[in-house]
Write a structure and sequence with these properties.
By secondary structure, this protein is mainly β. It has one helix and 13 strands, in the order E-E-H-E-E-E-E-E-E-E-E-E-E-E.
């Protein structure tokens, strides 16, 4: 799993007579006051490349660009499927795909909370977005009601969970 949020960069010259400077100091004509550097905590979320300049002993200047490309996160698992007032069968495990529960006929809906392991993942239930960490009400009818849960990781990979809600008995008026 890709968990890095920052990197450190230490620029080193081949010889000890050259100096390395942040690009911004060259742009602002402050190269005479600049000192060689080490940069820590460069955000891997910043879309801008990191630029630096090497000034050689005889005033030759070379420009360098470091692009930091963070691989998209591939975690497409849930940490929880919670149904208010009901227990899943089997108990929830992120690697298990099929769950069921029995709902008495007095219920017209169930409250389902879904939480993704990674906050960059998206969740849909029966094709409709469900925000991770939130609860949503889903209508149930007599018989088998399927909730098709798809978790999509940042890299596009998916994991499918199925929650079968079995509503027992007939409702009054049916």
């Amino acid at each position: 799993e890709n968990t890095f949020s920052s990197v450190d960069l230490t620029a080193i010259t081949v010889d000890n007579k050259s100096s390395i400077y942040p690009y911004q100091e060259i742009v602002n004509n402050k190269i005479d006051n600049a000192k060689p550097f080490t940069v820590t905590g460069i955000s891997v979320f910043d879309p801008e490349p990191f630029r630096y300049v090497v000034k050689a002993e005889y005033e030759n200047i070379d420009y360098y660009v470091v692009n930091i490309n963070r691989l998209p996160n591939s975690n497409n698992l849930l940490t929880a499927i919670e149904v208010e007032n009901f227990q899943l069968t089997p108990n929830f495990s992120p690697l298990t795909s099929l769950f069921s529960l029995t709902v008495p006929n007095i219920y017209n809906a169930i409250q389902v909370k879904l939480t993704a392991i990674n906050n960059l993942s998206t969740i849909t239930v029966n094709g409709v977005a469900h925000l991770s960490g939130t609860s949503k009400l889903y209508t149930v009818n007599e018989g088998i009601n399927e909730l098709d849960i798809i978790v999509t990781a940042q890299d596009g990979s998916t994991k499918q969970y199925n929650l079968d809600n079995i509503v027992t008995g007939k409702r009054l008026g049916n």
